[in-house]
Design goal:
CATH topology of the largest domain: conserved putative lor/sdh protein from methanococcus maripaludis s2 fold
Radius of gyration: 40 Å
Shape: elongated
Oligomer: single chain
Strand content: 35-45%
Mean pLDDT: 85
Order of helices and strands: HEEEEEEEHHEEEEEEEEEEEEEEEE
CATH architecture of the largest domain: Beta Barrel
Strand order of the largest sheet: 2-17-21-20-19-18
CATH class of the largest domain: Mainly Beta
Distance between the termini: 60 Å
Largest sheet: 6 strands, antiparallel
Structural class: alpha+beta
Low-confidence stretches: 8-27, 358-363
Helix content: 25-40%
Number of domains: 4
Number of helices: 3
C-alpha cells in the first residue's frame, strides 16, 4: 500500500513539473519584464588608458625663518587652511622686538625736540636774532632724526614679521603625510619641515597616447573604472603637445563621482576617433553568455526574441550595440536573465513589483 502511494506521489510530481515546464515555454504564461527603447546617440569609440588619483595641492611646507623647532604636526594630523603645522622658538626675536621698540621711542623723542627747536630758530631768524648756520644745522639734524624714525619703525615691523613667520602655517587644508624635521632640531629659512596633502581637491592624472589629442577637449565627460567601481569625470585640462620621448599627452580630469583615495589606480575611457551616430541600449539589456553577447527584444505576439549583438562604445548607463537592433525596438532590461527565445513576455505595469534583477555587470 505504501509503495502504491509513493508511486502515485511521484507521478503527481512529474506531471506538475512537466506542466510548469510547458507553461514556461512558448505559448505558456507570460513572464513579467521591464523594457526600454533602443535609441540613437552620437558616441565616439574609446581607448582605455591607465590613470592615477592625485591631489591638486601636494606641497612640502618650508620654514620662513631660522630657529629651533619646538613643535611639528604629527603624520596624519588634519590641518585647516592657515592652521599651524610647526612652531619655531621665537624668544630671542621677542627680545629684539622690545629693543627695537625702545629705539623707536628714543628716536621719536629726539625728533620731537628738534621739531620744536627748528620752529624756535625760524622765529628768531625773522628778527635776525640767530645765525642762519645754526638754523640750517638744526634742520639737517631734524631730517636725520626723521630718517632714523622711519628706519627703526621698519626694523620693528621686520621683527614682528619674523615672529609671525615663526609659526609655519598651511597654505591650504589637508593632512600631514610626512615629517622631514623633528622638534628640537635647528631649522634654517627654506628648510622643508612637513609634506601637506589636500584630500579635498582630487583629480585624475592620465598620460594618454598622442593619437587621442585631436579628440580631447576641455569639459568632455569621460568614464572612469577601478575594478567593479565606476565613476564619471570631466577633462579639466591637457597639455596640447606630446612628450618627445614617450609620445604621450598629459591629461588632468576632475572627479564628478566616486570616493577614491590619492594613489588609486584606475582606467579612463578616452575618445579614440570622431563621434558617430550609433544605436544604444541600457547596459542591463545585455545578456552575457559563453557563446556571445545578446539582447532580448519584445517581438510579435509579445514573445522574446534573442538578438546577437556586439558591444561598442559606452556612455553613462548606455552602450552601443551592433546587430539586428533598430531605434525604437523594445529591449528587455529586467527579467531577461532566464528568458528563452520565443518565450511569452508581458511588460510590467506601473506599481507592479519589479522582476528579479540580476547581479550588476560592468564593462
Amino acid at each position: 500500500m505504501i509503495r502504491i502511494s509513493l508511486s502515485l506521489f511521484a507521478c503527481f510530481c512529474l506531471l506538475s513539473l512537466a506542466g510548469n515546464v510547458a507553461a514556461a515555454g512558448p505559448g505558456g504564461f507570460a513572464v513579467p519584464v521591464e523594457v526600454k527603447q533602443a535609441e540613437e546617440r552620437s558616441l565616439a569609440p574609446v581607448i582605455w588608458v591607465a590613470g592615477d588619483v592625485i591631489s591638486r595641492n601636494n606641497a612640502r611646507i618650508s620654514a620662513e625663518t631660522s630657529g629651533t623647532l619646538i613643535r611639528v604636526a604629527e603624520v596624519g594630523d588634519k590641518i585647516a587652511r592657515h592652521g599651524i603645522v610647526a612652531r619655531i622658538d621665537n624668544d630671542f626675536l621677542k627680545l629684539q622686538l622690545e629693543e627695537a621698540r625702545a629705539g623707536v621711542v628714543q628716536v621719536e623723542s629726539k625728533r620731537g625736540f628738534l621739531e620744536k627747536e627748528v620752529k624756535r630758530l625760524r622765529r628768531l631768524a625773522k628778527s635776525n636774532n640767530t645765525a642762519q648756520t645754526l638754523l640750517d644745522q638744526t634742520e639737517a639734524d631734524l631730517s636725520a632724526a626723521q630718517a632714523d624714525y622711519v628706519s627703526t619703525l621698519a626694523r620693528v615691523k621686520q621683527i614682528e614679521d619674523r615672529i609671525r613667520r615663526s609659526e609655519v602655517r598651511a597654505p591650504f587644508p589637508g593632512i600631514i603625510v610626512q615629517r622631514f624635521m623633528q622638534p628640537g632640531e635647528w631649522v634654517d629659512s627654506g628648510d622643508q619641515v612637513v609634506q601637506l596633502l589636500d584630500t579635498g581637491a582630487l583629480e585624475v592624472h592620465v598620460m594618454a597616447p598622442l593619437s587621442t589629442m585631436p579628440f580631447l577637449r576641455r569639459g568632455l565627460e569621460v568614464q572612469l573604472q577601478a575594478g567593479d567601481e565606476q565613476a564619471r569625470g570631466r577633462i579639466r585640462s591637457f597639455v596640447a603637445a606630446g612628450h618627445t620621448a614617450s609620445h604621450l599627452v598629459d591629461v588632468r580630469i576632475d572627479l564628478l563621482s566616486g570616493d577614491w583615495p590619492v594613489g588609486k589606480t584606475l582606467r579612463v575611457a578616452l575618445p579614440a576617433a570622431a563621434p558617430r551616430k550609433v544605436v544604444v541600449v541600457p547596459r542591463d539589456a545585455l545578456v552575457l553568455r559563453r557563446n556571445g553577447t545578446a539582447v532580448f527584444r519584445v517581438g510579435e505576439e509579445s514573445t522574446a526574441q534573442r538578438i546577437r549583438v556586439k558591444a561598442g562604445a559606452a556612455e553613462g548607463d548606455v552602450i552601443e550595440v551592433r546587430g539586428d537592433i533598430a531605434v525604437g525596438d523594445k529591449v528587455i532590461v529586467r527579467g531577461n536573465e532566464r528568458l528563452r527565445p520565443g518565450q511569452k513576455v508581458r511588460i510590467k505595469q506601473e506599481g507592479e513589483p519589479a522582476p528579479q534583477a540580476r547581479a550588476k555587470k560592468w564593462w
